[in-house]
Design a protein that fits this description.
It is a single chain. This protein is an alpha/beta fold. The protein folds into two domains: 250 residues, Glycogen Phosphorylase B (Rossmann fold, 3-Layer(aba) Sandwich), CATH 3.40.50.2000; 201 residues, Rossmann fold. The chain is 39% helix and 17% strand. The strands form three sheets. It has a nine-stranded mixed beta sheet, with helices on both faces. A six-stranded parallel beta sheet has the order 14-13-12-15-16-17, with helices on both faces. α1 crosses α14. The protein starts with a strand and ends with a helix.
Length: 457
C-alpha cells in the first residue's frame, strides 16, 4: 500500500529550546533543527514518550511506511514550526493565565491514577473552573491538528497520553484515531463521577494502546468501545553509547564516585511517585554493612516542571525533602544527586554501577529496566511497574513490593553478596533476551501492522 501521512500529538515536545529568544521564525519558514546546536540552543525532552516516538517515526519514514509525519505538542518557548529530519514539529502555546488551571487538572488526574492524592478525590474535577482551561488547551491543539489535516490530508492520528484525551473527540473526523495511554490504568481507583467522562473521551478513538496486560483488563472493566491493544514500550539500542571503563571512571569521579566504590543507580525524575524515598530508606539499612556503596539518583523535573517547559512541577521541593532525609540519616556524601544528565553521561553511570533500582510506587512501565539490560546490568524492579509482568524474580530481574518494609534492602543485599557473580550473570543474560521484546525492532513490526490495518479498514 502507499505510504501513510500521520499526525502525532503529545503534551511533551520532542525538543525544548534553551535560548528561545535566539530562535526566531523568519518569513513564515520553519526553523531547521539541524542548523541549531544540541545542548546550546535546544535539548531533547527527557521522558519515555518522546524517547519512544522519535526513533519509531524515524524508522517508519526511512522504510517508507510513512510519507510524512507531523508532531503537535505543547511548547510555549518554541517557534511555531520546526523541521527535524523528516518530521515537522508544530508547537502549541496557551496564555500564561490559563496554564494554572490546565496544570491543576493535569496534576489531579495524575495523582488520582497513581493513588497519591488520597486527601482530595476531586470528584467534581470535570465540572470545575480549572477544567475549562484543560479543555481550552485541548481545543487549541485540536484546532491546529484540523488545520494541518486540511493541508496534508492525514491518514491517521496518533494521540499520546491522558493530557490529550479530549483531542480525539474534538477532531470531529471519521479518520482513524489511536490513543496511547502511557501511565498506569486501574478503573477501580477512578472516582465514580469520572467514569462516564473518561469513557466518553476514550470512546472517540478506534484503538486504545496500553503498556501492560493489567491495564488492558481494566479498560475492559470500564467498558470502552475501542479495540484495546497491549504494546510494550520500547527503546532503540542504537541511542545508547558504551563508554570505555576509563572514560566511565573519569566521568563518575566528577560526582565523587571513586574507583573502589560500588554504585546502586536510580534513574527517574524527581517525583514522589518514583519512590526515591523508598530507595533511600533501603540504602540506609544496608549502608553500614557496605561502606563503599553509594546510591546515585539521576533526574530532575519533567517537561511540566522545567523552566523550558510549563513550570508546574514540585520536583525542587521533592529533591529538597530527599536531601533533608539523607542528611538526617547521616548519609550525606553517600547519596549522590546528579540532576538531569545527557545520554552519554548517563551511559557512563550505567557502565559504572553494580545494579539499578526502579522503586516507583506506581509506574506505567519502566524502561529503565530495559536500559539496564542493554548495559549488561542487573535490575531490581517494583512490582507496581508495568514491566513487572515481563520479569521472573531471580531469573531476569529481582522484584519487590515497595510497601513491604525491608524487602528492597534484602534484594539489594542479594546482589551485594553475590561473590561468585552467578546471580548477576543469570539476571543479565536473561534480561538481555527479555529486552528484545522492548526493542525498536519489535515495536516497528507491531506499530506498522496497527497503522496499516487501520488505514485499510
Amino acid at each position: 500500500m502507499a505510504p501513510l501521512s500521520i499526525c502525532i500529538n503529545t503534551q511533551t515536545p520532542l525538543v525544548q529550546f534553551l535560548r528561545p529568544d535566539a530562535v526566531r521564525r523568519r518569513n513564515g519558514t520553519p526553523v531547521e533543527l539541524s542548523a541549531l546546536a544540541d545542548g546550546v540552543d535546544y535539548r531533547y525532552s527527557p521522558g519515555g514518550v518522546t524517547r519512544m516516538v522519535y526513533p519509531l517515526v524515524r524508522r517508519l519514514l526511512a522504510e517508507n511506511v510513512l510519507s510524512e509525519a507531523h508532531w503537535v505538542a505543547l511548547n510555549p518557548h518554541a517557534p511555531p514550526t520546526v523541521r527535524a529530519g523528516g518530521m515537522t514539529l508544530h508547537n502549541v502555546t496557551i496564555e500564561g493565565d490559563r496554564m494554572g488551571g490546565y496544570g491543576k487538572v493535569k496534576e489531579a488526574i495524575w495523582g488520582r491514577v497513581h493513588e497519591i492524592d488520597g486527601k482530595d478525590p476531586h470528584d467534581d474535577l470535570f465540572w470545575s473552573e480549572a477544567f475549562s482551561e484543560y479543555a481550552y488547551y485541548n481545543r487549541r491543539t485540536a484546532e491546529l491538528i484540523r488545520e494541518l489535516d486540511a493541508q496534508h490530508d492525514f491518514d491517521a492520528f496518533y494521540i499520546h497520553d491522558f493530557q490529550q484525551m479530549p483531542v480525539g473527540q474534538m477532531l470531529a473526523t471519521l479518520k482513524p484515531k489511536i490513543f496511547r495511554w502511557h501511565i498506569p490504568f486501574d478503573a477501580a481507583v477512578l472516582p465514580p463521577p469520572w467514569r462516564s467522562v473518561l469513557t466518553g473521551y476514550l470512546d472517540s478513538y478506534d484503538v486504545l494502546v496500553v503498556s501492560a496486560a493489567r491495564y488492558a483488563a481494566s479498560l475492559a472493566e470500564l467498558g470502552t468501545k475501542g479495540k484495546v491493544i497491549r504494546l510494550y514500550p520500547y527503546v532503540d539500542p542504537d541511542d545508547y553509547t558504551q563508554p570505555t571503563r576509563a572514560e566511565a571512571a573519569a566521568r563518575c569521579q566528577e560526582w565523587g564516585i571513586e574507583p573502589g566504590d560500588d554504585v546502586a543507580l536510580l534513574v527517574g525524575r524527581m517525583d514522589p511517585i518514583k519512590g526515591q524515598d523508598v530507595a533511600i530508606a533501603a540504602f540506609a539499612e544496608v549502608a553500614p554493612r557496605y561502606p563503599r556503596l553509594k546510591l546515585v539518583l539521576v533526574g530532575n523535573g519533567s517537561f511540566s516542571g522545567s523552566s523550558e517547559g510549563l513550570g508546574l512541577s514540585k520536583s525542587a521541593a521533592w529533591r529538597s525533602h530527599l536531601e533533608e532525609t539523607v542528611g538526617r540519616a547521616g548519609l550525606t556524601g553517600r547519596v549522590v544527586f546528579t540532576g538531569h544528565l545527557a545520554q552519554h553521561d548517563l551511559d557512563c553511570l550505567y557502565a559504572r554501577c553494580r545494579f539499578t533500582v526502579l522503586p516507583s510506587v506506581r509506574e506505567g512501565f519502566g524502561l529503565v529496566a530495559v536500559e539496564s539490560w542493554l548495559h549488561h546490568r542487573p535490575t531490581i524492579v517494583t512490582e507496581r511497574a508495568g514491566i513487572a509482568e515481563l520479569i521472573r524474580d531471580g531469573t531476569n530481574g529481582l522484584l519487590f513490593d515497595p510497601e513491604v518494609p525491608g524487602e528492597l534492602a534484602r534484594k539489594m543485599e542479594l546482589l551485594l553478596n553475590d561473590r561468585s557473580g552467578a546471580l548477576r550473570a543469570r539476571l543479565v543474560r536473561n534480561g538481555r533476551e527479555t529486552s528484545k521484546i522492548c526493542s525498536l525492532d519489535a515495536a516497528e513490526t507491531a506499530e506498522r501492522e496497527m497503522l496499516i490495518a487501520l488505514a485499510e479498514a
